[in-house]
Specification:
mainly alpha, 2 domains, two-stranded antiparallel sheet, 2 strands, 61% helix, extended
């Protein structure tokens, strides 16, 4: 996996562990760490749909991912905005 995505081994391992804990991957060997896509049929169908959407509209998929994170960050930031408590208005 490391050679295919050109990242650091620790980063690759961290993401493989995360994807496994989320149920997207299944670890099939500990001796030589090996993984496969989840065997859950519904999840595989959703992954296939996402892959098709990414193939046909990659920008929209990426925008959706980052827009969601930006909205969450903005909502968090908005929670700390000071409200105008000026009683003279």
């Amino acid at each position: 996996v490391y050679e295919a995505i050109l990242s650091t081994p620790s980063s690759v391992q961290r993401w493989l562990t995360e994807l496994s804990s989320q149920g997207l991957l299944e670890k099939i060997s500990d001796a030589t760490p090996s993984y496969r896509c989840s065997s859950d049929a519904e999840l595989r169908a959703q992954i296939a749909l996402l892959a098709e959407n990414y193939r046909t509209s990659p920008v929209r998929v990426i925008e959706t991912i980052y827009k969601r994170e930006a909205n969450a960050a903005q909502s968090f930031a908005d929670a700390f905005k000071l409200k105008n408590t000026d009683q003279n208005s």
